[in-house]
Amino acid sequence: DGWRQIQGDDHFWRVRGMDPNQLEAWLQDTRPAILVQIPGVGTSDPGLWDRISAIREVLRTYFGICNITITAALPAVAHDHLNTEPFFLIVRGLDLTWHRVDELVDQQWLMTPRITLNFEPFIFDSPTFLGAWRRIERFPDTSEEGIRRAFQRGFTDPTFAPFILQIIQGDIESNGIWEGNSVRATFQSIVRSIRVRVMPWRRNGRATEPLALLYSLPPTGYPPDWHAFREQAQLFQYGTLTTGSPEFVTHHLWCTICHTTDHPTNECYLPSIPGWTGPRPSARRGGPNNHVGRGGGNNRGGRGGNRGRGGFGRGGGAPGAAAA
Fold first, then answer.
1. Residue 225 and residue 164: Cα distance in Å, rounded?
2. Its pTM surpasses 0.85
3. Of 13, 120, 153, 162, which residue is least crowded by CB atoms under 10 Å?
C-alpha cells in the first residue's frame, strides 16, 4: 500500500506554530519548493545545523540536487521545548524544479544511514483523515470492510448526503479542487474513496480497545466548508437501533515520531519497517503528554492522495494567522 500519508488537523498543519512573518515571506516566493521534516524533532531542537548539513548531503547523493538553500521554520514564539512545532524546513534552489519536487513528494520518506527524512508539498490541502471511533462492536459488521460500508451508508443517508452535495457544488462553482467534474460523479468518488483502518488504542494506561479510523477524499479544498463537512461526519450516528452507535473519539491523537494526528506514538508503523533509521517510541521526548494532544536503505513507496502547487480555492484563507 505504500507509505501512509501524514495527517494534520487542518489545512495549515505543515506550517503550524510558525512565525507568521516568515511564512508570509515563504508564500511570496513562487519558486519550486519542498518541505522536509525529520522524525522526532522540531526545528528548535539542538543540532539544527547538523540536520541541515545532512539534508543537503542526502539531496546531493540520492537525487543529484546541489544548488539549494535550506531554511528552517521559526517558531511564532521562541521556545526550547524538544520535538515541538514547527517541524518543517523549506528547500529551494536552482536545481529544484517542479519535476524534482514531484519526485520528492512521491518519495515521501527516505531512510539513510545518516538521517531519515519526510518530504511534503508546500501546499494547504484538505486532510483525508476525518476522525476515530471507539465501541466498534456497535457496528453491524466489525471487519474493516464492514465498518467501511457502514460509513458509506452514513455518507449516502438522506440526512447527510444533501449537505455533502451542497459543499461539492460550492467547490465546483468556485473553481475549487473538483472543478470540471459533476456534483453527482464527485459525490460517488468520495463515497468510493472511504477507507477504514482499525487500530488498537490504550488510553491512560487502561485496557486496550480498537479504534476505527475514517479516511475519505475531501468534498472541497475550502477550509471552512471542509471543517463543516468533517464536523458533520463526526456527529453522524453510524450504528443501528439494534446495536447502538459507535462513539466518536474526542481525544486528538498525535505521534511524536512522524508528527501525524491519526495515531499515537506507540502505534507508529515506521519503526517496524526494515531499515528504519529514525527514532523509536521509547526514545522520544517532547510533545503532548501521553502522546495525546492536539489535535541504511533507500526505501521508496507510493504517495496517493491529491497533490499540486495550488491553494484551496474560494479566496483561500489566512495561513499566516492560522499558523500562529
1. 10
2. yes
3. 162
